[in-house]
Each structure stands twice: as structure tokens, then as C-alpha cells.
Amino acid sequence: MKVPPVNLVKQNEAFREEFEAALREILSDAHFVLGPRLRKFEEEFARYLGVGYAIGVNSGTDALVLSLRAIGVGRGDEVITTPFSFYATVEAILLVGAKPVFADIDPRTFNLNPEAVREAITPRTKAILPVHLFGQAAEVERMGFPNVRVVEDAAQAAGAERFGRKVGSLGDVAAFSFYPTKNLSALGDGGAITTGDREVAERVRRLRVHCQTGKYVHEGVGYNSRLDEIQAAFLSVKLKHLDRWNARRREIANLYTEALKDTVITPYVAEGNLHVFHQYTVRVEDRDGLRDFLLKRGVGVSVFYPVPLHLQRVLREEFGYREGQFPEAERAAREVLSLPIYPEMEDWQVEYVIESVKRYYGKA
Ligand SMILES: Cc1ncc(COP(=O)(O)O)c(C=O)c1O
Predict the structure, then answer these.
(1) Residue 338 has pLDDT above 90, yes or no
(2) Cα angle vertex 124, ends 120, 127, to 5°?
(3) 130 CB near ligand 1 (under 6 Å)
């Protein structure tokens, strides 16, 4: 493939020596779980985000589940979220036994529309779960309601900002994923929870070790969900480069937008947002035609996401959601196409993608 959707070999190759040194250290002290490398990464990540606490867990999905548990979401509660995200967002709500209530998206940003959120609030609403989709912050400041907590799904947006504040510090608690394709990624699964609330942080720390309060003493039902020492050490190495990588993503996005803005609907960056372009997602009416054409030319495009969450089987069958309820999310699912974007992309590859899109429309 001329332009693959990501190039992780190239990214990680640059750190081979630092990764090997980290591995040698871990092999010599054999401290694999809940040790000094995790503490160090948690401190670095919290400082980077400007938030009180960061707690490393197994995955972004676990980060969402533990966040919801830590603020007391459970059976009988409603959680308002977006119908346009990765399945884990809604799965976390289902896993803690709460009811997912969807509100439609703003078609310009693909993020939750705060007006639609307001209309979805009921006396049972315990939390709002906005997703900073594709690397752009949601309008969290417009989602403040009495007795309703905000849990940010920041899986795709490490380093993104809204009015100068980093995502992960905008709501009550936030979930990050370090899945290998994310902007800040581990060499395997990983995730983190961030919060400024000491009690929430303590609850998360207990939940990730079986609700343990003393040796073999457990005060509830928790999880085995820790970011291991090897991944924490790798993430410490990579965190130092996150801002530079995100700047390169923005540079590529600007090249795309400048060249394609008269051909397709290019991403809209809302006022106050520093976008980190986890994805560069355009909208077109003949999406499948453009996708097939680009794939044939060796351009690794992807559709995130072809099925909105309310139309996934469990949501239809158990909660009665139907087609037509969230028209903006449904239209986005039909029209979106993500072009390759990652810091290791070469300029000629960016040019090749631009030329290929233009060619489809007879403009090259
Ligand atoms: C928006 C969103 N939420 C949650 C997740 C779940 O993260 P993980 O794959 O680390 O469990 C992902 C990514 O996979 C995601 O993109």
C-alpha cells in the first residue's frame, strides 16, 4: 500500500534503544505490576494534562467503566452520550448496568450537541459522556447541569485543548486509551483515568485492584486492570514527543484542507479548539465510491463509523432504538471518510492522497 492508514513500525523504530533500555531495567528488578515506572508515568501524564491525578489501567474501555463506577453510576441511572463513536463508549455504560440515552451530534464537529443533551436530561440522568471525537474537544463547558457528572471519553484526543485547557481536565473524570493506533500509544493495550477529584482517584485506584483495602481484604467488587510496568515505561518515552507529533498531524491536516476544501467537506475546527487530528475525516455524498477508488490506488482510508451506536443490535433489541431517531449521526455514518494521517507520513504521501481525491472528482 502506497499510503497505509498508520505506520507503527516507523514510529517505534525511532525508540528502539530507549525501549530496550527500559526492558533491561524491568528484567533486572522484575517489578512488573504497580511499580515505579507506572507511578512515574502517572505523574508525568497528570502534569502534562494539568490535572490532579492520573491512574493507569488496562485499556480505554476499562478506563470508561472504572470512571463510571468511581462516580457511582449503576443500575437505574441514565447516562447521556453520543450515537456517533466507537462501540466501547456505549458498552461501558451497558457494562455498569446503566441506561444509555443518546443525544444527536453537531454535524460540523461530529461531537455531542449541547442543546440535544439539554433536551435529553431527566431526573434519572447521572452522567454525561461526551466523546472528543477524531481528536477535537467536545463543548464540555455547555454540559454543566446540577447533580450530573461529566465523564470525558478522551480516547482519541490526547493533547487536544479547548480554550487553552487540555482534554482530560475539562470534566469530572476522563478516560484515555493507549491502544497502538492512538495519538499517544503503548505497544499493546493500555489506558488511563484522569481527575482532579481526590476521592474519585482513590476509588479508581481501589477498583483496579479488586477493591482491595488491605492485604486480602476487599470492600466491593472491582477489576484486575492495571497498566503494566513495561507499557508505562514505553509511554514515558513517547509522551515527550506527543506535542511534536500532534503538531505534525495539524500540519498535514492544513495541507489537506487547503488542497481539498473546494472538493469535499473538510473538517471544521470549532472556536477555542486545538484539534489533534487523530482522524482527518471528510464528508462526501458518494462515500463508498470514493473509498473504493482510493483503496484501489493504495490509499489506506477508513470509515469511522459506518453504524451509529443506537442501531447496534443490543441498543435496538434491548432499548428499542430505531433508525431515524438521530438523523445527524445517521447521515454522518453514511458520508464520512477518514484519510490517512499520522506523524510519520511523508510529504509525497500527503500529495499522493490529495491528488487521488482530486482525480476521483476529475480535478487532477
Ligand atoms: C472513542 C473511543 N472510546 C473508547 C475506546 C476504547 O479504548 P480501548 O481500545 O483502549 O479499550 C476507543 C478506542 O479504541 C475509542 O476510540
Answers:
(1) yes
(2) 70
(3) no
**Most ligand 1 atoms within 8 A of CB, residue of 79, 105, 152, 177 to mutate:** 177
Instruction: State the pLDDT confidence band at 274, using cuts at 50, 70 and 90.
Output: very high
Beta carbons within 8 Å of 9's beta carbon, 6+ residues apart: none
DSSP state of 222: -
pLDDT at 364: 86
Torsion of CA 89, 91, 95, 99, to 10 degrees: 80
Q: What is the pTM of this model?
A: 0.98
Looking from the CA of residue 131, the nearest atom of ligand 1 is 1
Atom number, ligand 1, closest to the C-alpha of residue 189: 10
First to last CA, the chain: 21
What domains appear along the chain, each with residue ranges and CATH number?
8-103+110-239 (3.40.640.10), 242-360 (3.90.1150.10)
Residue 51 · residue 110 · CB < 8 Å = no
